[in-house]
Amino acid sequence: MSSLRRYLPEHDLMYFGPSPAVYHCHHFNLFLDQTIDDALGFEAGSRLRFLAGREFASPLLSGVAEQSGATTPAERLELASKLFSGMGHGRLQITADAKGGDVKGSYLHYGYSWSQKYGQIVKRKQPADAFGAGFAAAASEVALGLPSESMGAQETECVAMKAPGCTFALKPGDRGLRLPPVGEPEVQKQIGTSFNGLYEEVIQPITKGLRDFTAPVAGDERGLVQAFGVFVTLHLAGYYNRISYEAVQQVEKKAPQSVGVLEDLLRESGHVCVFNTFGGILLSPEWEGMVGPLTGEPLPIVEGCMAIARALGFGRWTIAEFEPGKRLVVRAPCSYESVFYRSRYGKAARPNEYFLQGACLAIAQLAHRVDWKSKPMLTQDYYNALFRGGPLPWKVEQPKSTACGHPMSEVVVTRVEGARA
Amino acid sequence: MAQGSVKDTVNDVPSLRAVFVTAMPDCLLYDSWVRPEESWAAEDAASYFGDLVRANREGLRALKSWSAEMQVTIESADVLLIVRELRSDFVVTLAFMRDVPLGMVRLHAKRVMERLDQLLPTLEAQQRPRAVKITEFLEKYAPDPHAALHRVALRTGIPLGTLRKPESLETTQVALLEASVCDILGLESLSL
Amino acid sequence: MPEAIPPEGVVLEGERARIELENGCFERLNWRCTLHAPPAEPAAIVPAMVSRGYTELKRVPQVLEVFHPDGHRVAVIPSTGRIQIRVALSVPEEERGQAALEVAEEVAAAVAG
Question: Which residues of C are less than 8 Å from B76 in CB distance?
């Protein structure tokens, strides 16, 4: 697993095999999928999530199969299952031939973490593992030498719906649009000159330490990665980007009045991710050992968050300005969002790195609103207490984005005068 | 507020930790008394007890076993709760120390309920717009309450600003709101 | 079904150690351990635990970790003395606090020699 992970060191982007990849937690994954379904409805939302999973799993699976010399269908299906669990997505057992097949899933990241996070509160009526369905469909295409974008998959039982396990039915003839790839060559074309920001002497060694530490991390006996208080996945950046940007495009066409609220929710997925995952890392014994105990000062939190973002493959996030209690400006030569957007859709009409925006907002809030010395539990109740009811004491704007053709992406977070503490 | 106070009705009950009086049918906190050393927030708890009694009533009706005299007893790890519908306009919840014998709890509860029945006024049922109740229900039970209204806005196409004034929603918008709240919470219908 | 974690957290006291549920652990897996008689050198916990059947997991020198065949792990931060007990996933959630306390007592016993 670790030999498949590579970084673009100057840009802090990551590849897994031939595929652009990032680490993301279950809070982000669940919130983003939910937002897509809220925007498009479950049928269209899960269809898009399936298509994106299938599209971006395909080059990963064929690339790694070729690299590892797996040629027979059985070898390739086994390899697919190993990759899936190694990435922290749970366990898949795929039985398929050209006529279709079936898949059994256990501890699937989406369904299992949904039942852990929400299962006591909400009754779910639809399955949660469209990404797993897409991955299994791509795995069977690659294993059986079928054309890509041809195998369909439907999740028929799901643990999120209180079934004992997840099952999928594979059926050929489900044609999707062949879209231009967004792999390593396409990413390379989109990245410009990199640059550094303030406090690099602190940020870069932490980034390296975190990368070294996470290199051997892979799924446990369940095929899950449970670390820092969250379930972590090594995930395909193209999946996140396609579902986010296609959802925005569809809402722009069908319900333009709702675009703003969709963008708010896409930002919120970044916000919830940083709060839980970055916060969990900062509170961990590993952080204390590698970086030192938290002082409670805002600057080390912001520096630490820049390092975490880089180690997770989000891009070279740099501190351009930081005035504690007032203002944070983050710049990046590109992000996993902007390189995708430029490659697939061309220049954006407005800055649209939603994850970056939500994440920077959360970084400012982590730095100023969390009492780190009290060793807080970053629970849902704590999150609600901090962020429920408005207006929030910090606001975020993105004046520049490489997706728009600007030389850098820039996000500005400022304190709202007169807002609550 | 009535003459006297809730505190006066429980002065001689040493094992009592708190009293919550919930006004029905809106499940809003009407009055409370909480022992000073407790960290409970009455506003956070009171509305759930109203919902609890309502759900209990519906369940008993489904079993054809409903009676106005019913009360709910909850024995959790560190508290013993008695929840009772006091007339149609109040639900009273008494929180006792966990180690008090149940017979003693019932005796105290009966006395306190009788005193509260004398103390509490008769409320005029206030007819609040259904959309207001739906929105309150959503914010109380949604898994990510800070984002719940955004989710409804995205699902229904109703602007966020309009949803923030639920009393002014049109009939068709109320239907859309209710359907989306049912979907978000995984419910067939809302018990309001 | 285990009870919800109260806002003030969960603390369990043993004879020779105290454990406290740590952040984000909605499955009650990770517990901060405070020994009543900590060793002068926190790193000494590792060989002491190895002598009791644990295996050292070598990753980075700033974070020491040992694991038991049953799946429990103990992480030690030499620079600060922080000890975290990570209970095996196979232990049912409602029993994890007690399992963590038993590991904490074992750490204390190992250190005491």
Answer: 3
**Which residues are within 8 A (CB) of A114 and not within 5 positions of it... i.e. 6 or more apart?**
A30, A124, A128, A160
Candidates A327, A306, A308; CA nearest to A317 is A306
> What residues contact residue B139 under an 8 Å CB cut-off, 6+ apart?
B145, B148, B149
> How far apart are alpha carbons C6 and A377 in whole angstroms?
11
In sequence order, which residues have a C-beta less than 8 Å from that of residue B121 and are 6 or more positions away?
A: B2
Res. B1 pLDDT band, cuts 50 70 90 = very low
Instruction: Answer for the pair C33, C83: CB distance below 8 angstroms, yes or no.
Output: yes
Report angle CA A101, A103, A108 to the nearest 5 degrees.
Answer: 160
Question: So what's the ipTM on this one?
Answer: 0.94
Nearest beta carbon to residue C60 from set A120, A212, A288: A212
- List chains touching A (3+ CB pairs under 8 A): B, C
Please give the Cα distance from A307 to A137 (Å, whole number). Answer: 36
Separation between Cα atoms, residue A104 and residue A92, nearest integer Å: 6
In sequence order, the 6+-apart residues with CB closer than 8 A to the CB of A124 are: A114, A118, A158, A160, A161, B186
Nearest residue to B156 via CA among B175, B171, B130, B137: B175
- State pLDDT tens for residues A119-166: 988 999 999 999 999 999 999 999 999 999 999 999 999 999 999 999
Distance CA A286, CA C65 (A): 10
